[in-house]
Write a structure and sequence with these properties.
The structure holds 2 protein chains of 2 kinds. Chain A has a single domain, classed as lithium bound rotor ring of v- atpase (Four Helix Bundle (Hemerythrin (Met), subunit A), Up-down Bundle), CATH 1.20.120.610. Chain A contains 6 helices and no strands. Chain A is elongated and about 65 Å long. Chain A starts with a helix and ends with a helix. Chain B is of the alpha+beta class. Among the domains of chain B are: 71 residues, 2-Layer Sandwich (Alpha-Beta Plaits); 153 residues, no CATH class; 111 residues, no CATH class. Helices cover 60% and strands 10% of the residues of chain B. Chain B has 22 helices and 12 strands. In chain B, strands 1, 2, 7, 8 and 9 form a 5-stranded antiparallel sheet that branches. In chain B, a hairpin with a 2-residue loop joins strand 5 and strand 6. The longest helix of chain B has 45 residues. Chain B starts with 5 loop residues before the first strand and ends with a strand. Chains A and B meet through helix 4 and helix 6 of A and helix 10, helix 15, helix 21 and helix 22 of B.
């Protein structure tokens, strides 16, 4: 068990990295899907750039949430900002688990949200005045990324206070 | 709540005044025309299709001409010009345009013609260039390409695939000597040759050459290639000149840009007028305009029309079946949010305007999600300065948008102070990095740090959510009271209020929940017991009444049970407000990350570069997130409780131009 405890910090860092990495990959794919669809609209009507850009950026937030979780975790375990303490195997595992909602939901929701965004960009191409409604559809998907972010934040902060 | 009352209006006037009267109506822009009277034997509509087609064509050519002008002599536009709005012109300028009308149409057509001739010249140029390319390998040949020989000799000019040398060529034609062969040019996959033989051997030579895949050149001419190439070059030069000339001519017409814009607007206005004209009912001497008018404008318009044209004006209240158009009336605080309501849907029949109530929450929710004093200040200042600089010429819609974001910015400043976020923790970072101050935080929060007490912040967010949802339910109550539907008020609102409030009281009396939410409330036991019974009674009430559209008792109870299940909807609605925490934290934590990264760099200059770039990015992303999610909370959680929309905005017959505003002379506050 003593040997395993050396790996606590590894698991915690792994969790932080996964949160930024996996949701970042998802957001990158999502934003690129939006960009491809948006570029098509812009060739027809460059004046729609502003609206299309907003829709394209919507799936980009998951990557930022992932970054957020990664940062909170890294500063909790003292990798950033100093004050590193001994992290037991169990605690490391807790951190890893706490990061997973953001990593997994972030990835999936970014891509699903991009699907909705692409469809909404199609709406903008035909009916630019319906921007408000078109924006809501992708925003609905984001709810679940936000819920995952919430749980990950609460869990990471909570695990910091655990005495295991 | 805040919608203007509409009235039906009928205007009866003499046909001789038709043009003047319609122009006046268009300038006033207070009547939305509708067909309210049916055609009969006396009153008929007239056909304006032909006239409208002319206007549409002119609009299209003005637009095309303007686009062409933009390509060949682009207009200089500053970055801020989109705030500026349309320029104003007076009625006199408008009336004077009639004299310039024909010449402007001609100018538009001339520009289009010129651009077409440019396109044609370019196509021609391309053709010449391709020909020149084909000729290039033959340039050293000094006889025409269609040379076939003399009386006694036969000549062959053409290409062989692949590279050949002279020896190999002679070898393959050795049976037909005497033959003279010249290689004009040779590249890797093509050899251009000229061969001469005596005429009686011509067929044999040709057959042998065919065997080597000989082909004649694809271009033929009766002049030597060099001469021909020279001709082509001259032709290319000619087209080049033609293009430049046409471009110059277009450039010279760039000064007419304003007139073309005016033509566009002028024809747009005329098109709108003729559309109305086409819907008018007309008899031999009379015509009737029918439509909707805001009640406040009705009397003055009626007075003016009867005074100027002797028209007879009749107004009446809208009928039950009418789809009355919607025109908002809000104070300066709420009015900026009308566009947000419109992007959901304007209020439908029997609904009231939710803008006012929404504005109480909108700015606050935005501020909570953006929640940084520095960012809020930048947002509010940027919008404020924009409003100040262009206050005279700015379009109404742009003004409202800027106002909305300015209020949002102010709310953001408020919440930023509450949670002590100033570009994240920038004051702390600067004071420790540059002044060696160890005492942080420099500025303590008025409420608390959300990062330190996330659970408390979550509770706070949900509490705001509950207030928001209750306000939505309250709006429903208001609507039902206005419709005097007191049964529904009791069944759909009072029962739900009772259930929710007592449910919350019961939940709060559980120690597990309060400790989790990090709040301390003590609910006295009697209150808790009463709450329990109220909750049960209300739940029963909901089960019994909420399925009341079904007559069959069993089905009715089932539907009631399903309605009670809607309480899970309230739960998810409240949880949805956790985004206030999540987005607020996202702003603050990312800002801190930026500050921390900047603090790792040595020296103040790299520090401030990272701070400025990083915070601009964070600002952009979060202002977008806050805007989108505030809208979502309003549209889904809040509107879901009481609002359907589906109305139609008031679109009066008026002046809907793109480039110019026609200014009316103002006298004593009323339009002259």
């Amino acid at each position: 068990m003593e040997v395993l405890n050396n790996y606590g910090i590894v698991l915690a860092v792994l969790g932080a990295v996964l949160a930024a990495l996996v949701s970042g990959v998802g957001s990158a794919r999502g934003v690129s899907m939006g960009g491809v669809a948006g570029a098509g609209v812009i060739t027809e009507d460059p004046s729609k750039f502003g609206k299309v850009l907003i829709l394209q950026l919507l799936p980009g937030t998951q990557g930022i949430y992932g970054l957020l979780i990664a940062f909170i975790t890294l500063s909790q375990i003292g990798v950033i900002g100093g004050g590193a303490e001994e992290i037991s195997f169990a605690k490391g595992l807790c951190y890893l688990g706490a990061c997973l909602p953001m990593a997994i939901v972030g990835y999936t929701s970014a891509i699903r949200q991009a699907n909705a965004s692409v469809a909404s960009i199609g709406v903008i191409a035909k009916k630019p005045e319906q921007f408000g409604k078109a924006m809501i559809f992708p925003a609905m998907v984001e709810t679940y990324a936000i819920l995952a972010l919430l749980i990950s934040i609460l869990a990471v902060i909570g695990v910091g206070g655990l005495n295991i | 709540m805040a919608l203007l009352n509409m009235q039906r209006i009928y205007i009866y006037a003499l046909k001789k005044d038709r043009k003047k009267l319609l122009e006046l109506l268009q300038r006033r822009g207070v009547v939305e025309t509708r067909n309210m009277i049916k055609e009969d034997a006396v009153f008929k509509k007239s056909d304006t299709q032909a006239a409208k087609a002319v206007f549409e064509r002119n609009i299209a050519s003005a637009q095309e001409a303007l686009e062409i002008l933009d390509t060949y002599s682009p207009e200089k536009k500053s970055l801020l010009s989109s705030f500026k709005g349309r320029s104003e012109v007076s009625c006199e300028v408008y009336d004077a345009f009639r004299d310039k009308y024909d010449t402007t149409v001609d100018i538009a057509n001339q520009i289009i013609r010129l651009s077409r001739s440019i396109a044609e010249s370019k196509a021609e140029q391309l053709k010449y260039r391709t020909q020149a390319e084909v000729l290039a390998p033959w340039v050293s040949l000094d006889i025409p390409l269609d040379y076939k020989g003399t009386k006694h000799t036969a000549g062959f000019i053409g290409c062989l695939p692949k590279a050949w040398d002279l020896e190999a060529l002679y070898a393959s034609l050795c049976d037909f000597m005497p033959v003279h062969i010249e290689i004009i040019s040779a590249i890797k996959d093509q050899t251009c040759i000229f061969a001469v033989c005596s005429r009686d051997k011509a067929d044999g030579v040709y057959a042998a050459l065919r065997g080597m895949d000989f082909s004649y050149p694809s271009i033929s001419a009766d002049e030597p290639p060099a001469v021909q190439l020279q001709n082509l070059k001259e032709q290319i030069k000619e087209t080049e000149d033609a293009i430049i000339k046409a471009q110059d001519e277009i450039g010279a017409l760039a000064g007419k840009r304003e007139e073309l814009k005016f033509l566009y607007d002028y024809e747009t206005m005329r098109l709108e007028k003729y559309e109305v004209l086409g819907n008018l009912l007309q008899s031999k001497n009379l015509f009737i305009v029918s439509g909707f008018i805001p009640e406040k404008d009705a009397a003055s318009l009626a007075g003016e029309l009867s005074e100027k044209f002797g028209a007879f004006v009749e107004t009446e209240a809208p009928r039950k079946k009418d789809e009355v158009p919607v025109l908002y009336r809000n104070n300066a605080f709420s009015a900026p949010l009308e566009s947000v309501v419109n992007s959901y849907s304007p209020p439908g029949r029997g609904e009231s305007d939710p803008t006012m109530v929404m504005s109480l929450f909108y700015y606050m929710l935005f501020g909570l999600m953006f929640s940084d004093t520095g960012y809020g200040l930048i947002l509010a200042l940027a919008c404020g300065i924009g409003l100040l600089l262009f206050r005279k010429t700015m379009e109404q819609s742009m003004k409202k948008n800027l106002l909305m974001f300015m209020y949002c910015g102010i709310a953001t400043v408020f919440w930023g102070i509450m949670f002590a976020s100033y570009f994240g923790d920038l004051p702390d970072v600067i004071s420790t990095k540059f002044f060696g101050n160890e005492q942080i935080p420099v500025i303590p929060p008025v409420m608390f740090f959300p990062v330190e007490k996330p659970m408390l912040m979550l509770t706070f967010s949900m509490a705001i959510g509950i207030i928001h949802l209750f306000a939505g339910l309250g709006m429903k109550a208001y609507l039902l009271i206005r419709q005097k539907d007191f049964k529904s008020l009791l069944y759909d609102v009072v029962f739900w209020y009772g259930l929710l409030v007592s449910g919350i009281i019961v939940l709060l009396s559980m120690e597990m929940l309060t400790s989790m939410l990090q709040i301390s409330v003590t609910i006295p036991a009697p209150v808790r017991n009463v709450a329990k019974y109220v909750a049960i009674i209300c739940a029963l009430g909901i089960i019994l009444t909420n399925g009341r559209e079904s007559r069959q008792p069993f089905k009715r109870i089932l539907k009631g049970l399903y309605a009670l299940y809607g309480i899970s909807g309230y739960l998810s609605d409240v949880l949805s407000y956790s985004r206030l925490l999540a987005l607020g934290l996202a702003t603050g934590v990312i800002a801190s990350v930026i500050n921390k990264m900047a603090a790792m760099l040595p020296g103040p200059i790299p520090f401030f570069i990272v701070v400025i770039i990083g915070h601009s990015l964070n600002f952009g992303i979060n202002v977008l997130g806050a805007y989108v999610h505030t809208n979502r909370l309003q549209f889904v959680e809040f509107f879901g409780k009481f609002y359907e929309g589906g109305g139609k905005l008031f679109t009066p017959f008026g002046i809907h131009t793109k480039y110019f505003k026609v200014k009316e002379k103002m006298k004593n506050g009323s339009i002259e």
